[in-house]
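> example.struct
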């Protein structure tokens, strides 16, 4: 055999050997893949990763925990999911993932466990149970302190820590959203709305309808919409805009604000609220007319006369009428009296809605014409009451608010109110104010210097 023939023979032999090795490797990989697939199928779906944002979960509704699994899944029903401690949620299934959405903010410094039973792959086979736990962080909020040397907004914790994030010579009011602070300042008698990040940086000025005074600043439950009432600086008996309602966006501070009008009614707004989850606003005008107004310009819904708006939860509004407090279903315009409490508990002042259907009420008992302090009571849907806090007769209760999770109540107090002089702001308030935080079992958690805690939807009353 010639040398060329021997060389050719060796090359063909090496090629055949290489092909055999490749086929062997492919066969092994095939067996491994098949075995892995069989194991996965035999074991049922397993979790490969979990995504969550525990910090956001304590401050706002709608946070999600997402399980990623090894298989495409059959639809998971809410009955298969257990959350401990209990918290309201919804479930969605998409491909290999299951999302648990918490409809209310969660409690701070709490470990939650989520278990899903009978988790099934789309192709059938055995089911499995998956479980995951996570802990929520400490709860923080914001308060405003007015002072002789300037006003400051502080980021505060329930453990007493605080950090100044915004300072100005004259701060009237502020609101805190998930991503921003909206601060109402005054200079030379004219209001300015300053938008910042929550740490006070990246300041931008929000465009206003003109030179004037901003009052009743509020923010929508979600998104970037804020609203306020506006009065021209040069208003006089001969004319000018007075207490008109405008909305704007913190995402676009340069945009022209939108006026919210009610045709055929007194345009001056006494009080108002965003209706959560909708594009509507509940508005009380100077003539006592209560209306549900759409920001898109749809025809308003007239809801009769009222003397005040206490609170809104979903589409349920707690309204003050001359004949007494009522509960109005804004979806149907039907109403019923507020379920009463025992007369011996006192006269009902403010009413705040809780997500579980109960209310937080301020009641003042009297000895003849003399008030005997104020009691803050939780009243459940069946009328059962429990004491959350008591305010001494010498102190003034200016406002009651509830934390996003419904775990705490915040009471804005003017200590020794008779000897506590008012300041000279557009919204005049006693010079010394403190915010007392209570859990709903009646335990006082802490006292914060200042007011306007970010849980409140609006500034305190005078």
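> example.seq
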């Amino acid at each position: 055999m010639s040398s060329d023939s021997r060389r050719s023979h060796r090359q063909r032999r090496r090629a055949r050997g290489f092909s055999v090795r490749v086929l062997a490797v492919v066969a092994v990989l095939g067996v491994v893949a098949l075995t892995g697939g069989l194991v996965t199928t035999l074991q049922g779906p397993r979790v490969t990763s979990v995504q969550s944002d525990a910090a956001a979960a304590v401050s706002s509704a709608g946070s999600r925990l997402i399980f990623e699994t090894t298989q495409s899944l059959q639809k998971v029903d809410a009955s298969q999911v257990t959350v401990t401690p209990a918290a309201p949620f919804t479930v969605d299934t998409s491909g290999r993932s299951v999302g648990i959405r918490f409809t209310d903010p969660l409690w701070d410094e709490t470990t939650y466990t989520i278990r899903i039973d009978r988790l099934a792959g789309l192709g059938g086979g055995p089911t499995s149970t998956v479980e995951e736990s996570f802990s929520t962080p400490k709860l923080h909020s914001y308060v405003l302190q007015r002072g002789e040397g300037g006003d400051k907004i502080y980021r505060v914790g329930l453990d007493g820590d605080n950090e100044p994030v915004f300072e100005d010579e004259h701060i009237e009011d502020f609101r805190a959203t998930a991503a921003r602070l909206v601060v109402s300042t005054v200079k030379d008698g004219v209001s300015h709305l300053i938008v910042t990040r929550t740490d006070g940086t990246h300041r931008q000025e929000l465009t206003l309808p003109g030179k004037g005074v901003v009052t009743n600043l509020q923010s929508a439950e979600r998104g970037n919409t804020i609203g306020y009432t506006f009065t021209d600086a040069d208003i006089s008996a001969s004319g000018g805009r007075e207490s008109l309602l405008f909305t704007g966006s913190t995402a676009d501070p340069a945009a022209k604000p939108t006026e919210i009008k009610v045709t055929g009614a007194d345009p001056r707004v006494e009080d108002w609220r965003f209706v959560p989850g909708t594009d509507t606003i509940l508005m009380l005008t100077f003539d006592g007319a209560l209306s549900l107004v759409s920001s898109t310009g749809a025809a308003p819904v007239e809801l009769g006369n009222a003397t005040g708006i206490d609170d809104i939860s979903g589409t349920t509004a707690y309204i003050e009428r001359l004949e007494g407090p009522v509960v109005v279903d804004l979806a149907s315009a039907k109403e019923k009296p507020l379920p009463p409490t025992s007369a011996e508990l006192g006269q009902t002042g403010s009413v705040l809605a809780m997500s579980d259907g109960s209310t937080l009420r301020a009641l003042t008992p009297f000895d003849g014409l003399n008030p005997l302090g104020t009691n803050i009571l939780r009243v459940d849907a069946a009328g059962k009451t429990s004491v959350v806090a008591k305010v001494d007769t010498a102190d003034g209760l200016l406002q009651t608010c509830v934390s996003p999770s419904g775990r705490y109540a915040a009471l804005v107090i003017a200590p020794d109110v008779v000897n506590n002089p008012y300041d000279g702001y557009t919204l005049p308030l006693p010079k010394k104010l403190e915010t007392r935080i209570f859990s709903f079992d009646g335990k006082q958690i802490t006292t914060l210097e200042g007011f306007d805690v970010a849980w409140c939807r609006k500034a305190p009353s005078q």
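> remarks
The two ends are 113 Å apart (CA to CA).
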